[in-house]
Every structure is written in C-alpha cells, then in structure tokens.
Amino acid sequence: MKYIFANWKMYLSFDESCILMSQLLQEKSEMQNVEVAIFPSSISFSEIEKLARGSQWSLGAQNVAWVEKGAYTGAVSAQLFSELGAKYALVGHSERRHIFHEKNEDTQKKMSACFEAGLIPVLCIGETQEDLEAGKRQYRLQRQIDEALMGNNISERSFFIAYEPVWAIGSGSACTASDAEDIIGWIKLHLKDALGVDNVPVLYGGSVDATNVVSYTAQASIDGVLVGGCSAKFDEFSSILKAFDGA
Ligand code: 13P
C-alpha cells in the first residue's frame, strides 16, 4: 500500500475547498493499492467530510490541540476532529514549528492527544538548510523523533512519519529520490533499532509534483508522499494521482 496525502494548508477559501474536493472525487476517487487522504482547513473540514462520504478517501486534521477540552481559545481538539470523521492528524508540521514556534515537547503532547482520540498522527520532521550544512541532519531528525515519541507507548500505537526537509518545502527544489530513500531508510532503521518499532509508514514531502511523484513512490523505503502546494490545485493534484496510477 502507498499513500498520497494532500495538505491544503491555508491555500483555499471554504468554497474553493468544496469545489476542489468535488472535482477531485469526480475525476479520480478509486485507485488500487493507494490511500488518498485530504487535510483541509479546520473550518471546511466538516463539509469536506460530507463530500468524501461513500468514497475511499480519508481525511485528516492539519493540527490539533494537545488537550481535549477547556479554556483554550481558538484551539481545536483531536477529539473534535475524530468526532467529525478524521482518521489522521499532522503533528509538528514545519510551518507549525517555524511560524508558530512549536517545540518537540509540544509534538509529544499532540501525539498523545491523537492516540487518546483514536487518530493516527503523522509526525512531520525535517532538517533546515543550516542543519544540513552543519552536518546535523540525522541529529535533528533523531531529536524530533525521539522527543515526540517519548512516553507514548509507541509499540502499541499506529502512527506515520513524514520526512519533509524544511529547505525543500515550497521551494521547488525537492530532495532527490535517492537522497530521500537513504534518509528514510535511516529513519526506519532508527525506529527499529533504537525504539523497537517496525512497520511505521514513512512519507516524503517537499516540492512533490506530477513530474517527480513516481520517483519517490517507486523507492523501496518510501511509503508515499505528503503534497502541499500542488495538492491545492485541481490540475496539478489530478496529474499527481494520474502519474501515480499509471506507474
Ligand atoms: P510543498 O509541496 O508545497 O513543498 O509543501 C510540502 C508540505 O509542507 C506538505 O506538508
């Protein structure tokens, strides 16, 4: 099974989200051996869920609060997304870390909140350009993984990891498929050897488009892709789905 996850970020209005979802489902809702999941904005989530009913597509939250209920103005809990039909939730996306200053300890709490709510968290990790140049790639990834998973009883949990190098997100300069394969191979080895967990799907994200998607999904260690910008445009995302389906 391979996975194509679409992170719509804050690219679309409510109406645009509904139109895009309807068009995509009409164009291509059934695919073999691939799971498509859409991560719409919180505000359009419920309407997108109604449109997705009866299809094979899944839905996820772009972000969740780390508590279930209470005086947390503006926050949306994992429980609430679960109640509305989410299967997944992104945790620790690079934009949450760099724009909203989320720390590894926040990702740890959000992973717990997802597990408690019955959501499958997709832990997003990735090194910056500075980390890369300083030879700190593995160091950064290892800390992001270990600190998010700490105390979370992970051998009994389902979760994904999305490797999204910060320098590749939205830059048009993607990590090469062979480099992504090597580092994702290393991530899987680390999960197994240091943390005792096997079979965690690991996705690649960062400037994925219709011309390069198959180069990632064809790799042995890469279980799928997390697409940002190109997933919020009908022509580009349907070309990604077609490229994948035709491969
Ligand atoms: P882009 O595909 O726009 O580079 O974004 C990747 C991403 O952040 C997905 O979560």
From TrEMBL:
Listed GO MF terms: triose-phosphate isomerase activity
GO CC, one annotated term: cytosol
Localization per Swiss-Prot or TrEMBL: Cytoplasm
Alphabetical list of Gene3D superfamilies matching this protein: Aldolase class I
UniProt record, GO biological process: gluconeogenesis; glyceraldehyde-3-phosphate biosynthetic process; glycerol catabolic process; glycolytic process
Keyword line: Cytoplasm, Gluconeogenesis, Glycolysis, Isomerase
Biological pathway: Carbohydrate biosynthesis; gluconeogenesis; Carbohydrate degradation; glycolysis; D-glyceraldehyde 3-phosphate from glycerone phosphate: step 1/1
Catalytic activity: D-glyceraldehyde 3-phosphate = dihydroxyacetone phosphate
Annotated InterPro entries: Aldolase_TIM, TIM_sf, Triosephosphate_isomerase, Triosephosphate_isomerase_AS
Key word Phosphoprotein present: no
Enzyme class at the top of the EC tree: isomerase
UniProt subunit comment: Homodimer.
Family named by the database record: Belongs to the triosephosphate isomerase family.
Protein name (database record): Triosephosphate isomerase
Origin species: Candidatus Magasanikbacteria bacterium CG11_big_fil_rev_8_21_14_0_20_39_34
